[in-house]
Amino acid sequence: MKLKNTHKATASAILAGSLMFAGAVNAATTFTEDFETGTGKWQTSWGTYATATNFSGDPHSSVTGGGVTYANLISSQGATSNGADVISNTVAIDAADFASIDAGTATWDASAWVATYNGGANPNAERVRIDIEFFSDAGGTVSLGAASNILEDTRAGAGTSGWLEISNNGTVVANARSFQITYGSVLGNDAYADNISFSITPVPEPSSTALLGLGGLALILRRRK
């Protein structure tokens, strides 16, 4: 009886260890922008409002971790071109993600806080739109195609201008080695954004450690028979 219990304990330990190694998956490539420390991650500039500025009818303080500023596309507030898209610098994908990307198992997750102007010529209509473009080289010169509206504020009508967190996910394009994020607007320049986040999560093949552990478990179970 004691021997059987020992076998069970050993088998459990091997299985737990195998699953631990096999399940250790973390997002290797990330892009984040909180609009607090300048436009260094971008090819052109966006504008900013202080957190106390409220044109959406909903205070910026309602944004989780919103800091002291948020972004807009208004030239008088710092944007390079009024209402124009702002494109990020090219972000090289971590080499640890390559195998999973090429196997078609790597996924991306995106999120942002968004709001719009509840007055003016287009009340409640100047909505945030965020796109992603993947490239087959680290320098971002050979495009694999752009995915439009990976994040979009699709609300419409009165009372829908306040701050809202939106999110989405998908599969990374095969052979991708870099990407660019576009922050733009469906209409106009009053498309407010904060805390944009984009991450790639690889799904690795079972590790040799995990396979060895599972093999040991099978051997123990066989001996018990």
Account of the protein in words:
32% of the residues are buried. The longest helix is centred in the first third of the chain and has 21 residues, at 2-22. Strand 7 and strand 8 form a beta hairpin. The chain has three helices and eleven strands. The protein has two domains: 1-24 and 206-225; 26-203, Galactose-binding domain-like (Jelly Rolls). The protein is 20% helix and 32% strand. Residues 18-22 have low confidence and may be disordered. The protein is of the alpha+beta class and 225 residues long.
Quick overview of this protein structure:
The protein contains 3 helices and 11 strands; from the N terminus they run αβββββαββββββα. It is an alpha+beta fold.
